[in-house]
Amino acid sequence: MLQQELEFRGISLKHLGMYFEELGGKQITNHFPYVYQSDDWYGEIVREEELLITSTFKVNSVHIVFNASNDITLKALIKNYRVKTRRIGG
After folding, report:
1. Is residue 90 in some structural domain?
2. Domain for residue 75, yes or no?
3. Number of folded domains in the chain?
4. How many Cβ atoms are within 10 Å of 71's Cβ, its own excluded?
5. For 41-83, how does the pLDDT look when each residue is reduced to its tens digit (9 = 90+)?
6. Which domain holds residue 39?
7. Which of 34, 40, 60, 86 is least crowded, fewest Cβ atoms below 10 Å from its Cβ?
């Protein structure tokens, strides 16, 4: 099983889980680590931390581990997940 861990900042835990579901995963657990599983891959939301940027500005930091049986599936999962988490300012 291949895996890769990524960190996402400023996106709610609820939305990060919803993105797994939109990609075909089903939520398996209701506590850390939150596990989402499909036929070809599974993802784990392993922890959430609060980062202090300044004395008054805080953002969340969520660590996610992506798992797949082969490199092609893992890369496709991460690519599709990153599309969902992309934020463009304006």
Report:
1. no
2. yes
3. 1
4. 9
5. 999 999 999 999 999 999 999 999 999 999 999 999 999 999 9
6. 2-85
7. 86
